[in-house]
Design brief:
Elements (H helix, E strand, L loop, with lengths): L1 H19 L4 H4 L10 H19 L15 H16 L4 H27 L12
Length: 131
């Protein structure tokens, strides 16, 4: 089961990276709906979720909105790896990874694709899939 969870986590993580790889600066801050969030805000939100679930997986008492960074790809990679490892080491790996990373990240992949395609119409939406 651990290998399946790791594979799914890695796969959707690569999709997030593919969404933002080479993204134009203007696209990072584009807000397509008045109540929507930008690609940069999405990445910061994901970092916050990773901090939360890593703490939860370790048996702590996590709190939301503790991430204070800018949602950089470096932060994304570091915090996500820590969260996946913490979840896999917990007794609730399947539940935590599914709820907070695998399915949640996939939801935001859709948002990031929408933002990217709207702002950069030439962007290949199939770039998110492994070849």
């Amino acid at each position: 089961m651990e290998s399946i969870l790791r594979h799914q986590s890695d796969y959707v993580g690569n999709q997030v990276r593919a969404c933002v790889h080479g993204m134009e600066e203007a696209t990072w801050s584009a807000r397509l709906a008045a109540n929507g969030i930008t690609a940069r805000e999405t990445m910061a939100h994901l970092c916050d979720v990773y901090q939360y679930v890593a703490e939860k997986a370790k048996g702590g008492e996590p709190r939301w909105n503790q991430y204070l960074g800018d949602g950089s790809l470096d932060d994304f990679d570091r915090l996500r790896a820590q969260a996946v490892d913490a979840c896999l080491a917990s007794d609730s790996a399947s539940e935590l990874l599914t709820d907070y990373i695998i399915v949640h990240d996939a939801y935001h992949v859709g948002q990031l694709c929408w933002i990217r395609r709207a702002c950069e119409p030439e962007w290949d939406v199939y770039a998110i899939y492994a070849t």
